[in-house]
Design goal:
With 296 residues, this protein is of the alpha/beta class. 46% of the residues lie in helices and 17% in strands. The protein is globular, with a radius of gyration of 21 Å. The relative contact order is 0.13.
């Protein structure tokens, strides 16, 4: 299907910059797709992944907007002092407002890698126009990204890697006392009841909010690289609610890379997204949902 790409600016101060990819004949009843920045990577996405996604989805009949959050790429800095964790969901809603006003679309699919997954989730909780989420390698879905689970997983990974190295044990056995003290501190952290309670509380909150989105009509696709920490993170979340895992479509990419550096991992990702989106449209789940999800 022939497609067109246009550079656009939008937002309350017209400081947000993006690229709209769309077919020559776009049906506004079909949801538009927003691709959200992964960390500080601009709208092209890691290794131009978002460019490929946008063009593939536009060829399937979707309107796709990939844009830069304030202070990233071509988008200007904010001058109101709003922190990123509040600003990025706000700017995503401004992007939705722009697409709705310019193209008539009233429903949206939010998609992003890592931080983009967090912003997608946070925005969906605030705005009922979001009818579907594609969460790709989410490192956390916690409030303000302050995540005891992610911290625990990173520490566990560090300890496992250190314990598995012979050089580490040689230093510990023959060496300075500070090596032994560090290991003692790390292992005590992993056993800490307080940390365990904090991890459980986070998992309960995220599971409840994810369940509320699904109950409200949102559809969720979770894509994770093989062996990525997102597997353990989402396992901790999904196990907190009976049946929640069955309501989320979960796909695994047979690559270890968190940001899909290899062409093969990118092709796999595009194939999973294409298959799921076509099923999503065929299932007729693109209708707007009633009510505002803010406060879930």
């Amino acid at each position: 299907m022939p497609l067109t790409e246009e550079a656009v600016v939008f937002g309350a101060s017209r400081s947000l910059a993006g690229i709209v990819s769309h077919p020559a004949e776009f049906d506004p009843v079909r949801p538009a797709v927003l691709l959200l920045n992964s960390g500080l990577t601009h709208r092209a996405g890691p290794y131009r992944l978002y460019v490929k996604l946008a063009r593939k989805l536009a060829s399937l009949g979707f309107l796709v907007l990939r844009f830069d959050f304030s202070g990233i790429g071509d988008s200007g800095l904010r001058n109101d002092g709003v922190p990123q964790n509040r600003a990025h969901p706000l700017e995503t809603r401004e992007a939705m407002d722009y697409v709705e006003a310019a193209w008539g679309t009233r429903t949206f699919i939010l998609m992003g890698v890592c931080r983009g997954a967090w912003v997608s989730f946070a925005t969906a909780r605030q705005d009922s126009r979001v009818t579907a989420l594609v969460l790709i390698n989410p490192d956390t879905l916690a409030d303000n990204r302050q995540s005891p689970i992610s911290t625990h997983l990173k520490t566990t990974s560090f300890v496992a890697a250190a314990v598995g190295r012979g050089s580490t044990w040689r230093r510990v056995l023959r060496g300075p006392l500070h090596y032994r003290a560090q290991f003692s501190l790390l292992f005590s952290y992993l056993r800490s009841p307080l940390k365990h309670r904090a991890r459980s509380a986070e998992a309960d909150r995220v599971a409840a909010r994810l369940g509320a989105l699904i109950s409200g009509g949102a559809t969720v696709l979770l894509i994770m690289s093989e062996d990525d920490p997102s597997h353990d993170y989402m396992a901790a979340v999904l196990e907190r609610s009976r049946g929640l895992a069955k309501q989320v479509t979960i796909e695994t990419i047979r690559e270890r890379d968190h940001i899909f550096m290899s062409l093969s991992s990118q092709r796999s990702l595009l194939a999973h997204v294409e298959t799921w989106l076509l099923q999503f449209i065929c299932a007729g789940t693109a209708a707007p949902t009633a009510g505002d999800r803010a406060g879930n």
